[in-house]
């Protein structure tokens, strides 16, 4: 096949075939279509020659999977022994899948409201922590778990409310209507432990699926202290 005059491969990864003819790689200048080191009339004529041509669609491309991320731990009323609620309240999110979850556009609503940063992601089997005060709480979180502060001036209600997590497309990923009574364990209400989801696989909007952490202040950014001790269906 002949070389197509006035054309080249913009990726610079070597020759390719365009309209049945071989196309050489570009120079480092994206507008230099013929690779002669100058953006000139030949480059312009090449573009005009191709104007209106239909480009093939890569049907092998796949969209990113729709992840379900779970609310796995809530520390809504830290004990005096640990310190002020202002410093140690947090919400933990968990990605149980085998794929990294990119959380661009995701947001938390209900109890507190905040939009996750554009670069927020959770590794497979990993965690992300949202803190009332990042300066005091995030130092307790393992380095591999992202930790961000939710919008200033908000706090978790000590008697209970609903934490909601929404995907970037507006669909609901998870919600937990925690309380300090009505079937919910009371120890996390100022007693020292956090409120922990007892195990992956349990229905996490059911009070029976939640317990008190074995650790003062909970386990932000890491596996919950009671995981593996329950018997999820």
Describe this structure in words.
With 233 residues, this protein is mainly beta. The protein folds into 2 domains: 1-61, no CATH class; 70-216, Lamin Tail domain (Immunoglobulin-like), CATH 2.60.40. Helices cover 8% and strands 27% of the residues. It has 3 helices and 14 strands. The chain has helices spanning 41-50, 85-88, 134-137, and strands at residues 16-18, 21-23, 70-75, 90-94, 101-102, 107-110, 114-115, 121-122, 127-131, 147-149, 160-166, 172-179, 193-197, 210-216. The strands form 4 sheets. A 6-stranded mixed β-sheet has the order 10-9-4-3-13-14, with no helix packed on it. Strands 7-6-11-12 form a 4-stranded antiparallel β-sheet, with no helix packed on it. The termini are far apart. Residues 1-23 have low confidence and may be disordered.
């Amino acid at each position: 096949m002949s070389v197509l005059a006035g054309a080249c491969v913009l990726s610079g990864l070597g020759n390719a075939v365009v309209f049945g003819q071989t196309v050489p790689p570009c120079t480092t200048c994206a507008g230099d279509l013929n690779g002669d080191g100058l953006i000139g009339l030949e480059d312009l004529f090449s573009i005009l020659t191709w104007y209106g041509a239909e480009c093939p669609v890569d049907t092998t491309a796949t969209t990113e999977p729709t992840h379900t991320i779970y609310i796995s731990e809530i520390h809504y009323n830290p004990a005096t022994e640990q310190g002020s609620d202002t410093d140690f309240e947090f919400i933990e999110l968990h990605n149980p899948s085998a794929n990294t979850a990119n959380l661009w556009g995701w947001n938390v609503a209900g109890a507190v409201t905040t939009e996750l940063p554009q670069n927020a992601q959770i590794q497979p089997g990993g965690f992300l922590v949202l803190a009332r005060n990042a300066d005091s709480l995030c130092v307790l979180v393992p380095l591999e778990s992202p930790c961000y502060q939710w919008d200033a001036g908000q706090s978790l209600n000590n008697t209970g409310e609903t934490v909601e997590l929404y995907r970037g497309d507006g669909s609901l990923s998870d919600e937990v209507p925690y309380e300090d009574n009505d079937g919910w364990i009371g120890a996390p209400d100022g007693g020292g432990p956090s409120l922990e989801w007892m195990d992956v696989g349990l229905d996490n909007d059911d009070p029976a699926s939640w317990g008190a952490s074995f650790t003062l202040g909970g386990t932000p950014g890491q596996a919950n202290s009671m995981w593996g001790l329950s018997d999820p269906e």
